[in-house]
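Z., the sequence and structure:
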Amino acid sequence: MTAGTAGTPWTATQQSRSRGTAMVAVAAGSCGLAGFVPPLWAARQRPHDAAFRRRMYAVAGGLLALTVTAMTVASIAEEDATGVGVGLSGDLSGMLMFLNLVLAITVAVLVRKADVGAELPGVAEELARRRLREQYRQLATGDPALGRSMRIGRPDLPRHLDDGGLVDLNAIPEDRLGPLAGLSAEEAGRVADARRQLGRFTSLEEVAVYADLPETTMTSLRERAIVF
């Protein structure tokens, strides 16, 4: 059992490296013509990272555009007896194809470890809880009465659901705000004072302004807090 357990991380790492190496082979083996494939593959490995996916789609689009341009220039170039493009168009197409190959391989090498994060312990579970929080957040804000009856964001009360760890800043008792919302005693006191002043929060932006919370605290609250 010990050997099997010790071998599991090694196997996951090897599989990850194999997939990344395959992407480099795709770029090199196609002479850069399939250079757009590795960044598309990389984007699929991180469905939760919107910024990374946008960058990869942009890179894939750029490589594809370069490939099409090079092939178009090559198609209009004059050819010698051996079928090799000559003249300005021939030289230009050759340079574009070479540039495309270099960029395609470079990109493939840079993104070959894009799926490593998927192998880290706890990542999949936390991403699942993040999706769960977002689903329950949408349900509660769309139907507040239902959200309250289901006790969404109320880990201080008995209930039969897992909302991913949401905390309703409008309903959690003052003495539980700190521990449940991840606030310091001082921050919890400011949130409680702001809530009494306003009656209830209508947005997390109100929490930030009226409770005068630092951005680091708000970053955490935006992940777990809810007001409805």
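The longest strand covers residues 78-79. Confidence is low (pLDDT under 50) at residues 1-10.

Let me know what you think.
H.
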